[in-house]
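User: Sequence for Phosphoribosyltransferase domain-containing protein below. Tokens please.
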Amino acid sequence: MNPIILREDSSRRIFRDRAEAGRVIAELLEHYRGNPDVVVLGLPRGGIPVAWEVATSLGAPLDALMVRKLGAPGNPEFAFGALSAGGRIVLVDDVVRALHLTSEQVRAVAASEATELARREAAYRGGRGPIEVTGRTVILVDDGLATGASMFAAVDAIRAEEPRRIVVAVPAAPESTCRELGAMVDEVVCATIPSPFRAVGASFWDFTQVTDEQVRTLLATPTTAPEQAPADPVQAIRSCAIAAPAGLPPINELDALIGDASIVLIGESTHGTHEFYSARAEMTKWLIESKGFGAVAVEADWPDTARVNRYVHARGSDTTAEEALRGFQRFPAWMWRNTVVRDFVGWLREHNDGQVRNDEPTAGFYGLDLYSLHRSMNEVIRYLDRTDRPAAQRARARYDCFDHANGDDARTYGYGAAFGAGRSCEDQVVAQLVDLQRRALADAGSDPVAADDLFDAVRNAWSVRNAESYYRTMFGDHTTSWNLRDQHMADTIDALREHLRSIYPAHSLGSDRPSKVVVWAHNSHVGDARSTEMGAEGQVTVGQLMRQRHGPQCRTIGWSTYCGSVTAAQEWGGAAVHETIRPALPSSVETVLHDVGVGEFMIRLDTGNAAARALEQPRLQRAIGVVYRPGTERQSHYFHTRAVDQFDALIHLDHTTALRPLEPTSRWHAGRTPETYPTGL
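Assistant: Structure tokens for Phosphoribosyltransferase domain-containing protein:
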């Protein structure tokens, strides 16, 4: 027995329809392509479109294996067994006992289904008999399994025909069903294993019922493999690969990708990889110097980056880039307090000094995130203390609402407000935001420095308002809190662009020049959610929102790595550790890119080239955040995506190294996982 199980850790929709699911399964069964002894049998009706794609790809004959589910009385979709051709019945004993079904009830349902089974056999095959399977490799295909009763019956029926080998292949099934089948047959391919498993249809965007006519048509359509074998995705990608040493493609290629875009989002597949940060910084320098970008907006809190922004504009008290980064104290500080960001901030200060001398627009450094509830409240009050004491008193009174929470722990406030253990401060934070917005309208046209200070206060008020909502919802539906965060980041980008446009006069190089923004964030925010499992759950991302709002003015670049090391914590709030990244899973985008054998390259996904076509099908993609759990890597760090629709370009660095914190601890130095992992543990 040699079952193949590709695990999936949620019940999100993966496949567009049954046809796409069939193509994915065919790729997993490609070792049977061209084998004359293989026959593919689909379970009608839903399994036939899936099986047709498999049979066509493998160049194998296709037939239907007549099996009927035995549905519970009053709930026919809930199977307690199945009936196959020849009258064989398979019962799920636990279900029969749980439903207290009598033998008379079982016989009545079986008799009814036997009539339908005979009707289908006559309708689908006409006068033709079934394909001979004795001594052959039989691949049994359905569109998904729940209890697996129908497939168990199919296996029982086929085994009586004495095939040489039995293979079961389905797009989605519970892990328990896959493992039970794995003990019965020679090979099992479960393309996804949702957990918790709710229904087969939950894995499809389009799960329209298959008709008898569609089954007849597909069974009558030849499944001979095309004269030319399906394109090898590795070869297709290799033919389009653009060399990118250390992650940097040639300037002419980067220029062709960016074009006239005014919003460029550059991702990272981990929050702790040196090469991602370094190459992203170098690209950003080019965007600022050659393309006139005026802002770097990062996945960090507004007040922390405001201190850096003051430094790069020579307005703060900090004298070095490292000092300016000391505002980043909240976990995970290493994301921004690291050597690459320090060097970039130092460069940005030097660049701006030169711009000021030449009376040219400068470039700023801004935060997009919303975790800074208490720090942003303090910044609002500090601004009003300088400019309007009575308004500062009103702000204090409103923000005093949060005093009942435990210290500065925003999660404590959120938990209490969400479950009635504390009062909600929603009305107070909204009122304070409205006051500052009115002030901004009244003060429109003030000098740039004053406008910057007021804009800073308004964005802090927005951060308080949205953080209050975020912490209040984070203990409930994950989709709601995720969307609040990414919508806040997208709105901040748009507000920032409008602010920069308003304080800088039209320039000879173009009035939009200062308002061009480059965004640094994780792939999971930069990529378009509509091409991932996230979108199926209703989640949105910054990349998606920017595309929807700005169309071709937005360009997105994702990153990928196969193996190496990473800076991450072993648990939320833990110390930064130097971890070894396990080689990517065989079915992932990362492994396909690794197999290209180039090492460091970029592929365009926006041109419809061979590489883009090779990444049209859903594949696993790895995402490592600030926590890395190699022991549960599949469940913790992978999700399905269509990379071709996720980014405009993807840069792959086969081997990468850990980002170095400014203050590496003994844990970071000592925390390197042995290269023999996991056998060395």
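The mean pLDDT is 86.
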